[in-house]
Amino acid sequence: MNIKLQRWIDRWAGIPLCAAVSAVDAVARCFRKDGKADQAPRAIVVILLSEMGSLVLAHEMFARLKQRYPDAPLHALLFGKNREILDLMKVVDPANVHTVNDKSLGGLLSSLWKAIGELRRANVDVAIDCELFSRISSLLSYASGARIRVGFHRHTQEGLYRGSHINRPVPYNPYHHISAQFLTLARAIDSTAVPKSKLPANLPAAGTGKPPPHVQLDAALVPGIQTRLAQDFPAIAGKPLVLVYPGGGILPIRAWPLDSYTALCRGLVADGCAVAVIGLKDDQALARQLVADVQAGFPASPTSSVIDLTGYTRSISELLALFHVARLLVTNDGGPGQFAALTPIWTLMLFGPETPGLYAPLTPQCHSFYSQWPCSPCLTAYNHRSSYCDGDNQCLKVIAPDTVLAKARECLAAP
Predict the structure, then answer these.
(1) Which of 60, 147, 318, 320 is in the most buried spot, having the most CB atoms within 10 Å?
(2) What is the mean pLDDT of the chain?
(3) Partners of 281 in beta bridges
(4) 299 exposure class (CB count in 10 Å sphere: 0-12, 13-18, 19+)
(5) What is the b/e burial string over 108-142, where b = at least 16 CB atoms within 10 angstroms of the residue's CB?
(6) Residues 6+ apart with CB under 8 A from 127
(7) CA of 116: how far to CAs of 61, 152, 261, 274, in Å?
(8) Phi, psi of 245 (to 5 degrees)
(9) Closest Cα to residue 127, out of 110, 113, 115?
(10) What is the pLDDT of residues 60-72, one digit of tens each?
(11) Which of 326, 342, 337 is nearest to 249 (CA)?
């Protein structure tokens, strides 16, 4: 579904539904007590619907939950398109992964009904809602049948009403890296403090959390990608391979300008590197334009060292295999930069509308560029990531290609 339609449904259907559920829950509390903090969970579900990159940043939360509650099966509820990355991380039993189809309204409703039934049959009694003020996720935590419902709470902020049925409310803290806030959600299950996040300060500082382990890919994947590249693009053989992801996905405002990518890629090609543009099939027009612009910088001897790999990898696994083959990834803020943390590749990530203070990949092999403009970050939990910018993303435009190229050379020279 279109992201604007999702926001519209979440607002105009979500608000009355949250109010109704809160009223029902308030009446029910008069006749029963919520679960005691010292009662061990029977089964836990983590609700993290929309962001593939956030699944990587939540790795430590999954690990802590399994360590603290070893007898409680861990479940996950997410959009079906995000399942592969969770399966590769191996933090949840595949049988306990419940997916939602967001391609159409009918598919959404039928898959939600199925997932709720599966969670109720699994006797889930703790739900952790990791979404930042999404109303549908808070409703799902209630519908799962969980007696303990943990989630971010607006406290006294205006707007973004989610009801009062979250009975372990954790104030959202925009000054802490999101991975640290996920850990706070996990610790709030049995917290008796007010607020539930008033806990000993042993959480990681911004962007310094424990890196996720590298995923173990099928043994044939990396050699397979190497063979395909050698057959399809023989001109890049023997050259250090640099990947660039110029797309902005569903949020184009996050994209570094195409002219900046062109200048960067020309510098890399002049250094003797091969450059490959990656992305989905929807990014092919942008990729072809970038390839043509880079080649136009070498009129005397047109280069074949820049290639279009949009749609080339058929799965997340193949993309991660490509990361094993390449030396460096230069990417806008988005999923590929987070996935790179699961592999040995060096990464340069460009932030502007969002901040690395909250979303930097948890790996020492990533350098984030961020220009600290007064209006940045403008995509936040408070505005459903709907920027008030007019599209002139100066926060990214001021990041100079020469600066990124210099850092790229450092990374390529590193082991």
Answers:
(1) 320
(2) 92
(3) none
(4) exposed
(5) beebbeebbebbeebebbbbbbbbbbbbbbbbbbb
(6) 44, 45, 47, 140, 141, 142, 144, 146, 148, 149, 150
(7) 23, 21, 44, 48
(8) -120, 95
(9) 115
(10) 999 999 999 999 9
(11) 337
Angle, nearest 10°, between helix axes 135-143 and 105-121?
40
* Residues 6 or more apart whose Cβ sits within 8 Å of residue 71: 40
User: What is the token pair recorded at 363?
Assistant: 């790996």
Tokens 């900046």 map to which residue?
A: 260
Task: Write the single-letter amino acid at 297.
Answer: G
Does domain 221-413 match CATH 3.40.50.2000?
Answer: yes
Q: What tokens appear for 376 in the block?
A: 């940045």
Contact 279, 287 (CB under 8 A): yes
> How does pLDDT run across 103-138, given as a tens digit for each residue?
888 898 999 999 999 999 999 999 999 998 789 999
- The residue with tokens 């519209």 is 8
Fold: same for 3-190 and 221-413: yes
Per-domain boundaries in the chain = 3-190, 221-413
Contact in structure between 275 and 240 (CB atoms under 8 Å) = no
CA dihedral (105, 107, 108, 110) in degrees, to 10, reads 120
CATH class of 3-190: alpha beta
Q: What is the DSSP string of 177-191?
A: -HHHHHHHHHHGGG-
Amino acid letter for position 326: A
